[in-house]
Amino acid sequence: MGGALSVTLVALAYPSMLGITTVSSAPDRVIANTQWGPLTESDRDFVVKVRAAGLWEYPLGQMGLQKGSSKGVITASQHLIDGHAALDTTCRKIAPMLNITLPNIASPQQVGFVSQLTSDGKGQQFDKDFANILRMTHGSIFNTIAKIRSTTKNSLVRALADQANDTVLDHITVMEQTGLVDFDQTLFQQTNPPKLPKSDLTPPPPAAGQPQVVLTPPPTATATPVDIDRLVGGGTPAPTVG
User: Which entry of 33, 110, 125, 151 is 20 to 30 Å from 71 by CA?
Assistant: First the structure.
């Protein structure tokens, strides 16, 4: 009985289409009642989005430290690693509390961004692409964070949104401080995204038995995860799924 119930919960927590675009059939539908407040489809999708963002932006930060040729890009790369490691810690902490299955791989579109920057040589072209791609993607999710923060009734999701808001604003700022952002082009792409298949915008579910990918904080980390233990006061009973 326990095994069958576990399968049912995983299927509910990770539907066939979930992730970077709004794919929920009913975003406001409550999918679980938890001691931290109801969990909606939008809440669940948001936790997955934050996790998926780290799965490609964290390695890009590592790449930027190796290939960046300007001080601004090096600084921005350090912020990416620091910020997404802390966000990932929070995501991995709250996901099992809310019965949310997290991906281990970013969406195909996000993997494509990594491939594009991998193909750039070290130098000015890499720096420019790095700053503009990351300014565009952070700007795109900024409005999503605000909407979740203003509408969610779940205190764990709200805490993640607070942390994500601070982190994304910081990353937007350091990208702009590189002096390489083409605002006309970036804002156009941000507000007129390409019409890609939903499969390109969805991080795949993890393979059965696959170890969870962990984004390790740097030795000089300054960003901190949400103190979930303090927030919830200790206990973490499983949510009631309805």
Answer: 110
